[in-house]
Amino acid sequence: MSKARTGIETVDEWLGGGFPRPSTSLLLSNSPTEKRELAEQFVVSGMVDGEVCVYVDFFRSPSLARSQFRNHGVTEQSRLIIVDAVSNQIMVPSEEKYVIGDALDLNQIQSVIREALENERPGRVVIDSLEFLLDRFPKESVIEFWHFLRGASEDTGTASLVLFMNWTLEDRELNRIRQSADCVLEFETRTAGHELQNLVKVHEKRELGISESDWVRLAIREPVGGPAQPTRILVIGSKDSGKNDFVNSLCSRTVVDDTGHIGRGRDRRRLDVSDIDIEVLGDPADESFAATFRLFSREVSGVFLVVDSTNPEDIERGRAIVASSHRNVRLVVIVTKRQLDDTMPVDEIETRMELPEDVSVIEAPGTEEMDAPMALERLFRRQEARIS
């Protein structure tokens, strides 16, 4: 049986040389882990071997995804086919060959993926990720989508990896997917003292001769040019909330990607905190307030929600954001315009927004008087508390 190696020696050894072809394998975790890094290394290994690789990305713009593959040393990307499911979500044009025009239409998603696989006949496919679909479609429909992928992989002879962070499925439902997967790799991030460790476990698949592994450290080759994916913070708020001033107070320089674009309607900056490389995403488009949160909230290390304390509608939109956020999403609320006479009391804002006790609230007297260092400290202190 032909094998698609991952390029990660320990994982390839447990898999008997790599993922079999054809196959559909599940990369599973219950919290944010290094699944994507393994999937990217899997794609890089395929391109090095001269294979066409299809990457279906529901979370990153193609320019960001391609930039991160360049960090892996892949400068010639003609064999990397990205199925773009993001550009239409954030209302920017796409230059990719395969574009999902409506990410809320599961039939269209399947149609575009099928077209890409049938036309390109790739050696490897990555679906990033299943939880995006479970956030938007009924469970049974997503399980049917999983079986569609299995059939498409079988028809085209490809090795497909499906990333999945399970915050939704019950054990019974998850087992339906696990049992039909050709391989299951489970991921965890743990602390050992003050060290953060990324671990992976290969689950047994007797019919493929794969034995159950221990939890082993996941050692992924350091990309050239630094980490492939920096820590990301999302700053979200309505147009007049003072969000842009807060972004400016966090960082002073704008990141321009290799194509020379920042991205229409999106503010992307970078700042340095000690040895941590942080990417700050801000969205000035008022109409995409909630949509942006849904798209990016699981892909970031923390969220700053900026609300105007003089605007009851802003408080209500903030309440909806808080209600839709998952408990694993780290959140700090920035309450602006505290110097004005018609401002709402903070305790009333907390009540109206139904804020959990572990969500920190920071008052900003004026839009130019925001304490960004304190806000970062609050966000990362909460992050450390959750990790420990």
Q: What does this molecule look like?
A:
With 388 residues, the protein is an alpha/beta fold. Helices cover 34% and strands 24% of the residues. It has helices at residues 9-14, 35-48, 62-71, 106-120, 130-134, 139-156, 171-180, 243-250, 289-296, 312-324, 346-353, 372-387, and strands spanning 3-4, 19-20, 23-29, 53-57, 80-84, 98-99, 124-128, 159-165, 183-192, 195-202, 216-217, 231-237, 253-254, 267-273, 276-282, 302-308, 331-336, 360-363. The strands form three sheets. Strands 6-5-4-7-8-3-9-10-11 form a nine-stranded mixed beta sheet, sandwiched between helices. It has a seven-stranded mixed beta sheet with strand order 13-14-15-12-16-17-18, with helices on both faces. Strand 16 (302-308), helix 10 (312-324) and strand 17 (331-336) form a beta-alpha-beta unit. Helix 4 (106-120) runs parallel beside helix 6 (139-156), helix 6 (139-156) packs parallel to helix 7 and helix 9 (289-296) packs parallel to helix 10 (312-324).
What are the key terms here?
388 residues; disordered C terminus; 24% strand; Rossmann fold; seven-stranded mixed sheet; alpha/beta; single chain; nine-stranded mixed sheet
Structural class: alpha/beta
Query: What would you give as the CATH superfamily of the largest domain?
Result: P-loop containing nucleotide triphosphate hydrolases
Order the strands across the largest sheet as they lie in space: 6-5-4-7-8-3-9-10-11
Helix content: 25-40%
**Named CATH topology of the largest domain:** Rossmann fold
**Radius of gyration over C-alpha positions, nearest whole angstrom:** 22 Å
| CATH structural class of the largest domain | Alpha Beta
Query: Oligomeric state of the chains?
Result: single chain
Cα separation of the termini: 43 Å
Strand content: 15-25%
